[in-house]
Amino acid sequence: MAQVSKILRKTDTKKRLSVPIRFLSSLPPFKLGSHAVTFEATDEKGEAWTFQCSIRKRGQYPKPVLTRGWVAFVKSKKLKVGDKVRFTKHMNRATATISYKVHAEKAIKIFGATFGYARI
Predict the structure, then answer these.
(1) What positions does the domain TF-B3 occupy (predicted)?
(2) I want to staple 26 with a disulfide (CB 3.0 to 4.6 A). Which of 2, 5, 104, 115 is the partner?
(3) What distance in Å separates the CA atoms of residue 109 and residue 97, rounded to the nearest whole number?
(4) pLDDT digit string (tens) for 59-78?
(5) How far is it, in rounded angstroms, from Cα 25 to Cα 41?
């Protein structure tokens, strides 16, 4: 099981989610010459979300970002700067299938300081 989590910044909540390069190894392979891959992730309520992960066409650093489907997810979950998102890849060994989960976590703040996160 592979897992990636990120505390959201302003751009992550308004336009796209920047993800670490290590996230790419968890995704389905990019087709030859392609700079984007689409995958589906299921949230804690069982709702399926389709995301597109894109990388730069040129340059040494690919800078992966989630674009398509991301802003709709943020709005649906009412995510804000400081909240957290977690993607998990699961491998079913019996059927050799891969599935993805996405979890949104709201920051628990007291007097402006974050004390933890609660799944929503």
Answers:
(1) 2-106
(2) 2
(3) 39
(4) 677 889 999 999 999 999 99
(5) 16
